[in-house]
Amino acid sequence: MEIVLNGKAAAERSVISMGMFDGVHIGHKVLLERAAVLARRENCPLIVCTFQQHPMAFLCPEKAPRLLTTLAERQQAIQNLGADMFFAMPFDSDLAQMAPECYVGQLVRRFHPVAVVCGYNHHYGKDGKGSPALLEVLGGALGFATSIVPQITLGGKAVSSSDIRQCLSDGDVIAASRMLGRPYARQAELAENDRLVLLRDDKQPVKDGKYRGRICLDGKRIPVVFRQKGDECFCPAAASFREIGKAEVEYICPQG
After folding, report:
1. Which of 67, 126, 173, 243 is a Cys-bridge partner for 251, taking CB atoms 3.0 to 4.6 Å apart?
2. Where are the alpha helices (H) located in the chain, listed in sequence order?
3. Cα angle vertex 32, ends 26, 33, to 5°?
């Protein structure tokens, strides 16, 4: 997958998927798999158009949500779902002031899509005034098909990045994992006194408590029990891995 962060990319034909894709949860997976099928059918690349940071981090930093995935994690998860290009723009004043029609128009001029795929609640352009309905109108005028993915539910409840964040804040890592389609994970540094120090990477914190999980390093997933307090996880098994330096901590379920 080609990763483009400088805005310098183009394609003669493509299928575009639009969205933030924070967490790349099971709803995003449905959307991206639909886009990948269309791209294969049209024999053209699938280009994922997103932003490097959440728009709210620019528009109103104090209200910006904590993220479920770092930029690198988003890239890897999207690559695993068959995208050919990860086109992530920095969200800046130019994008914030761009009318929805202009935003879509510049993507069309750049990538010449035969189809554009987005979620039912995707908004874009100045003040988020662009909607899926407007995208369908623009598609008719500019010559691309539009595919709108409906709300995805799990157990009768809508799947969303916001709901996953709330589950993690509440310590319900089981529900969060079900919506993500995988365990939630944080990067950590192995320290002395059986500690793992979670990296300050703007990811959504999990409620303090005791959890069953896994330490992931060198391609291995080692089951552990740990107690999290703030940015530290206390785990007796961590002492034997200290020389490795960094690891990933997966949250499986509460302990006790």
Report:
1. 173
2. 26-42, 55-59, 71-80, 93-96, 100-111, 132-142, 161-170, 173-180
3. 85
Contact 138, 101 (CB under 8 A): yes
Dihedral sign computed on CA atoms, order 132, 95, 71, 173: negative
**Whether 80 contacts 36, CB under 8 Å:** no
- Rounded Cα–Cα distance for residues 51 and 194 (Å): 37
Q: Please, are residues 241 and 217 in contact by the beta-carbon 8 Å criterion?
A: yes
Confidence check: pLDDT of 252 > 90: yes
The whole-angstrom distance between residue 198's C-alpha and the CA centroid of its chain comes to: 19
Give Cα separations from 186 to 28, 116, 121, 190 (angstroms): 20, 32, 28, 12
Q: Which residues of 154-163 are buried (b: 16+ CB within 10 A; e: fewer)?
A: eeeeebbbeb
pLDDT for 242 beyond 70: no
Taking only the tens place, the pLDDT of each residue in 90-102 is 999 999 999 999 9
Give the per-residue SS3 of 203-215. Answer: ECCCCCEEEEEEE
Q: What is the pTM of this model?
A: 0.94
